[in-house]
Amino acid sequence: MENWHRIVVKVGTSTIVDSDGQIKYSVINRLAQTLTSLQKSGHELVLVTSGAIGVAMQQMQLQSRPKEIPQQQALAAIGQTYLMSLYNQSFAFYQQMIGQVLLTYDVFDNKVMLENAINAVEALLAEHVIPIINENDVIAVDELDHQHSFGDNDRLAAIVTHELQADGLIILSDVDALYTANPTIDTNATPIRRVTAVTDEIRMSATGSVSGLGTGGMSTKLLAAELVMAHRGKMVLINGANPALILDVIKGEAVGTLFQGE
Q1: Residue 63 and residue 58: Cα distance in Å, rounded?
Q2: Of 74, 72, 91, residue with least CA distance to 30
Q3: 95: which residues sit within 8 A by CB, 6+ positions away?
Q4: pLDDT for res 204
Q5: Closest by CA position to 246, among listed 173, 178, 195
Q6: Comparing C-alpha atoms, which of 227, 10, 247, 244 is closest to residue 131?
Q7: How far apart are CA 136 and CA 99, in angstroms?
Q8: pLDDT reported for residue 205
Q9: SS3 per residue for the chain
Q10: How many beta carbons lie within 10 A of that of residue 134, not counting itself?
Q11: Closest CA to 70 of 124, 173, 144
Q12: Are the CB atoms for 247 and 38 separated by under 8 Å?
């Protein structure tokens, strides 16, 4: 597939935390290895990550996500530091520098703030540093309450892709692709390899994340795809269990689901 120079990669909570709440250290390591390989071969990488609250729940030995906003804020604060330490350790092993960028919903509505954020990311990329972007859940309590939710950062990743004029977005999820129906309950479900327009029929096939830990699902990924495609971009949805599939996407191989207009 042509023109994958500047790439935004998004990982959801289910990619790095399993259904039992255990952190997938090997997946994080393979992700770091894959992105470092691409960066060192001349690509520009931006990683949009979820998972702060998910990893904090494991640290705090919680079985379910608390409903109270202050408790979620506290978990986000705890989890973000550990999440970045995991990324830092994994990327450092491959001698790749990273930088943390925390954003809130209102940044994209404020011209000056948005310009500052873009300038910071551009400066990191110029120094061959991989920016790791997450939503600042400690401050953005309305996002925790899902009033302006980025949908487990699917929409955030789509907006970042547009604002940075990236060549495409690759979303790692807990499913192999977009299917004609829910493959966990319908044995006749088949993967849809290319979507040129998000139709009502496509939306009807969308089902939520199977892990229950994240706040996104297939519906939020379709919304992200629509946003990317509206700006003549492309998005690919693949299974995050094997981050090396990102390399197959860059090569143009038929993995996951490609969202791109005609």
Answers
A1: 8
A2: 91
A3: 36
A4: 78
A5: 173
A6: 10
A7: 15
A8: 72
A9: CCCCCEEEEEECHHHHECCCCCECHHHHHHHHHHHHHHHHCCCEEEEEECCHHHHHHHHCCCCCCCCCHHHHHHHHHHHHHHHHHHHHHHHHHCCCCEEEEEECHHHHHCHHHHHHHHHHHHHHHHCCCEEEEEECCCCCHHHHCCCCCCCCCHHHHHHHHHHCCCCEEEEEECCCCEECCCCCCCCCCCEECEECCCCHHHHHHCCECCCCCCCCEHHHHHHHHHHHHHCCCCEEEEECCCCCHHHHHHHCCCCCEEECCC
A10: 23
A11: 144
A12: yes
Distances (CA, A) of 4 to 10, 43, 59, 162, 254: 15, 8, 37, 14, 15
Strand order in the sheet with 168-173: 98-103, 130-135, 44-49, 6-11, 168-173, 235-239, 257-259, 194-195
- How, if at all, do strands 257-259 and 235-239 pair? antiparallel
Cβ neighbors of 75 (< 8 A, separation 6 or more) are 52, 53, 56, 57, 60, 62, 65, 66
Residue owning tokens 């790791």: 132
pTM of the model: 0.92
Tokens at 87, concatenated: 């990324």
Distance, in Å, from the CA atom of 195 to the CA atom of 236, rounded to the nearest integer, reads: 10
Rounded-to-integer distance, Cα 58 and Cα 75, Å: 10
pLDDT value for 141: 57
Q: Can you say whether the dihedral through the CA atoms of 35, 164, 215, 253 is positive or negative?
A: negative
Contact predicate 232/168, CB 8 Å: no
Residue owning tokens 């909570």: 13
Segments of the chain scoring below 50 in pLDDT: 146-149, 208-215
Residue-level pLDDT at 148 = 45
